[in-house]
Amino acid sequence: xxxxxxxxxxxxxxxxxxxxxxxxxxxxxxxxxxxxxxxxxxxxxxxxxxxxxxxxxxxxxxxxxxxxxxxxxxxxxxxxxxxxxxxxxxxxxxxxxxxxxxxxxxxxxxxxxxxxxxxxxxxxxxxxxxxxxxxxxxxxxxxxxxxxxxxxxxxxxxxxxxxxxxxxxxxxxxxxxxxxxxxxxxxxxxxxxxxxxxxxxxxxxxxxxxxxxxxxxxxxxxxxxxxxxxxxxxxxxxxxxxxxxx
Length: 246
Fold this sequence. Notes:
- The chain is α/β, with parallel strands linked by helices.
- The chain contains ten helices and ten strands.
- Strands 1, 3, 4, 6, 7, 8, 9 and 10 form an eight-stranded mixed sheet that branches. It has a two-stranded antiparallel ribbon with strand order 2-5.
- The longest helix is centred in the C-terminal third of the chain and has 17 residues, at 197-213.
């Protein structure tokens, strides 16, 4: 099983140095994206990213200084959003790190797909950003089937913990031999049952931590997941979607 997660908009430099980092798979494609962003005016960046002021300056500077080497930060420790705070990867021991390397993948608007201990640098670019790269109308078209192809070299059993924005980069390419299961987290409240974005992000992070800590390599074993008040709801679940409720 390989588990896919979304990146976060917020990132940081990692204080500790890490050995044995790896290079992202689609580094040449990433270079083209960085070149494209650097060719844009401030106004164009403002329009496509929806940022201004200090945030625009910070990200303009990030792209100008962008590097592609092994001296960056481990991807899974670079993102600081809610999901990543709850993954809590900084406490993984060596055995857990090795399992994480094999079973967790991060989708990215710049890099396409990342192994958790790939060397990366700070950036801001959502997959849904409307930017043309060469002949391709947007980032989805630019990466095309590449991300899917990379995933299935590891496993045809894919656990989806991504947002819709990122899972759209894979779903169009799934074949009959693939097992693609999405986990959803829903709250029963006032005679309704629905997902809440922040609570879902927290629980996605906790599920990744659970997968790594317990070395889960079959999605069926996730039925034992019971954190943040959620438990597996067999009645609502099906072969394509595992629903956890509280």
